[in-house]
Amino acid sequence: MRTFAPSLAIAFAVGAVLASGSFVHAQAPAAACDKDAKKLNMKLTMKNAHGKPVSLSSYAGKVLLVDFWATWCGPCKVEIPGFVKLYDRYRAQGFEIVGLITEDPISNVPAFAKEYGMNYTVLDANDREDVETAFGSITGLPTSFLISRDGRICKAHLGYTPNDEFEREITALLGVPSAPRTTPAASADRTPH
């Protein structure tokens, strides 16, 4: 794995601008996966925070978001609450998330996961050149990949990515509409007749 300081500084700055709402993100429809997209080696096996081996093949047939991250990564901390919501929203439709911790000991995960309410699997990708090779070069954190049900790497994101962009891509791969959201203002406007 590489040292991520320059990439992280840029990703954090972009993430801060996006999180502040100072940047308008295009709402273009997400395309489904290209037919010539690279297949991922789903036989990769890594250990979770309890030392139990988990193979990516256990997620075969699911739409999978794989996120390379670290507990010290600012933009990762911004993205994770959105991942928790997406997992809650789309898990029943066949969506899964696997966080691959890197450049950070797996022993840091349990306390961090509890603090951030992480409801998805985290695996140890530290010192795993085979994992980096399978996904391609990881040049910064966070780096996220969306994998189709048939194991193709459909989308890759380097740095902070807005939650709505992930949601459009996930729903396109799942073949479902975006989940409706209820807002407090909408429910407060309802008056009995």
What does this protein look like?
β6 (143-147) and β7 (153-158) form a beta hairpin. Helix content is 34%, strand content 18%. It has a domain at 37-161: Glutaredoxin, CATH 3.40.30.10. The longest helix has 17 residues, at 74-90. The chain has 6 helices and 7 strands, in the order αβββαβαβαββαα. It is of the alpha/beta class.
What fold name goes in the CATH topology slot of one domain? Glutaredoxin
Category from helices, strands and their pairing:
alpha/beta
- In percent, how helical is the residue content? 25-40%
What is the CA-atom radius of gyration, in angstroms?
17 Å
Give the termini distance in whole angstroms. 62 Å
CATH class of one domain: Alpha Beta
Total of helices: 6
What's the order of the H and E elements? HEEEHEHEHEEHH
Number of strands: 7
**Biggest sheet strand line-up:** 5-4-3-6-7
- Named at the architecture level, the CATH assignment of one domain is 3-Layer(aba) Sandwich
Low-confidence stretches: 2-30, 184-193
CATH homologous group name of one domain: Glutaredoxin
Average of per-residue pLDDT values: 84
Q: What's the story with the biggest beta sheet? A: 5 strands, mixed
- Which term fits the overall shape? globular
How much strand content do the residues show? 15-25%
